[in-house]
């Protein structure tokens, strides 16, 4: 059984992977690391990464393709799995091998861990836990060999000059953060910003809100976005999908949602089962007097 490990700047825990697979091939998304495969230039978008991975010999014959917990790596994992019709499992913290199948151990809420078996071959995994790498570091697990360089097609739609700086620094110090989900009508989003301004709080969102163009993708929280750790997270119209909550490490959560069965209520400290539009004005009055 063999595995390809895809990464850019942060590598999944190889100690956990080493004992599960007979062969591990490291695939770097930038040419400055001594991995088994390197691109002709640094992959700056998931389109470039997908083109690169699609050209790597033998990758579709692997048992597992393991992606690091980085934005570009996770986005590429989704594109790769969709292109080839492969199963994909996220939030993986470890592996087991059972009857020839790779079983992913997945972190769920609190201390709960689930075992999920990948039935496709290969199966795509996104693994949490990471080691920040230094430029030029050799990553070979045994003997040193010459990396194979793969020519990558430039993604002309992606221009670095148009990429806005990520907001982590602002969010790292925020004690209160507001989250916007699809339960917030688009016309109310400016009111959410007004509400947040009263508390000097930034506003983030779920992936679908960004995909619809309502908020910038750099403010997406979750699997394919950023992680936040405020004292208080006020989630407005957010259903609470695992993909979003994986990026939330708040001490307290206030959730407003019209669906009484929304998963967000399972982790919320204060649950408000109402439409956002029916409570936004009351929240503004509260915030202005805070």
TrEMBL record:
- This protein is called Electron transfer flavoprotein subunit alpha/FixB family protein
The cross-references to Pfam families, in alphabetical order and at most eight, read: ETF_alpha (PF00766)
The scientific name of the source species is Caldisericum exile
Q: GO MF annotations for this entry?
A: electron transfer activity; flavin adenine dinucleotide binding
Classification via InterPro entries: DHS-like_NAD/FAD-binding_dom, ETF_a/FixB, ETF_asu_C
Q: Where is the Electron transfer flavoprotein alpha subunit C-terminal domain?
A: 171-248
Which BP terms does GO give this entry?
fatty acid beta-oxidation using acyl-CoA dehydrogenase
């Amino acid at each position: 059984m063999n595995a390809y490990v895809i990464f850019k700047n942060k590598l999944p825990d190889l100690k956990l992977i080493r004992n599960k697979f007979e062969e591990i091939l490291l695939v770097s998304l930038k040419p400055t690391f001594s991995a088994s495969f390197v691109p002709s230039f640094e992959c700056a978008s998931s389109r470039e990464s997908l083109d690169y991975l699609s050209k790597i010999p033998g990758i579709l014959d692997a048992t597992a393709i393991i992606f690091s917990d980085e934005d570009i790596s996770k986005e590429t994992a989704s594109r790769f799995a969709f292109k080839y019709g492969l199963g994909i499992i996220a939030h993986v913290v470890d592996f087991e091998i059972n009857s020839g199948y790779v079983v992913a151990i997945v972190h769920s809420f609190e201390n709960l861990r689930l075992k999920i078996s990948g039935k496709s071959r290969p199966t795509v995994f996104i693994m949490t836990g990471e080691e920040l790498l230094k430029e030029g570091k050799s990553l070979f697990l045994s003997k040193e060999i010459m990396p194979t360089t793969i020519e990558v097609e430039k993604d002309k739609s992606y221009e670095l000059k148009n990429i806005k700086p990520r907001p982590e620094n602002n969010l790292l110090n925020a004690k209160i953060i507001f989250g916007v989900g699809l339960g917030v009508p688009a016309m109310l989003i400016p009111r959410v910003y007004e509400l947040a301004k009263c508390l000097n709080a930034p506003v983030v969102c779920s992936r679908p809100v960004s995909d619809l163009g309502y908020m910038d993708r750099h403010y997406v929280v979750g699997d394919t976005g950023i992680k936040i750790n405020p004292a208080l997270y006020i989630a407005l119209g957010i259903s609470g999908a695992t993909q979003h909550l994986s990026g939330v490490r708040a001490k307290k959560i206030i959730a407003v949602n019209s669906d009484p069965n929304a998963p967000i209520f399972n982790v919320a400290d204060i649950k408000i089962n109402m439409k956002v539009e029916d409570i936004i004005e009351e929240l503004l009055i509260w915030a202005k007097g805070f």
